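lol forgot to send this yesterday, sorry. struct tokens for the thing we talked abt
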């Protein structure tokens, strides 16, 4: 499913998109786009309001930190990793998510 254009996601930035009612955070790390669930796995809070530092994402609510590349929780209070979604880029720069049929999995 096409969700955004690479030109709208500069390296070192993130953007929240919604797919079938699920928030998904797109993160551009040095030209590689990653997609993770857009809500913190610790408590409901939008991760696009957080901070991106290198390859880690910090939730602004309780300062849980996650590895963008693996989704792993690096700092408490979060214990569950962020769900990750496969991303591909089309030749025209369209960002495409390869999502499963049915509900989009998230860790809560």
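and heres what i got for the seq, position by position
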């Amino acid at each position: 499913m096409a969700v955004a254009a690479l030109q709208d996601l500069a390296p070192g930035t993130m953007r929240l998109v919604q797919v079938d009612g699920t928030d998904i955070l797109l993160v551009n790390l040095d030209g590689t786009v990653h997609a993770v669930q857009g809500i913190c796995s610790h408590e409901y809070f939008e991760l696009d309001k957080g901070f991106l530092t290198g390859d880690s994402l910090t939730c602004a609510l309780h300062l849980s930190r996650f590895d963008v590349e693996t989704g792993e929780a690096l700092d408490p209070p979060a214990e569950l990793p962020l769900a990750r979604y496969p991303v591909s880029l089309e030749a025209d720069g369209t960002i495409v998510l390869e999502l499963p049929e049915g509900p989009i999995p998230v860790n809560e």
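The two ends are 24 Å apart (CA to CA). anyway ping me if u want another try
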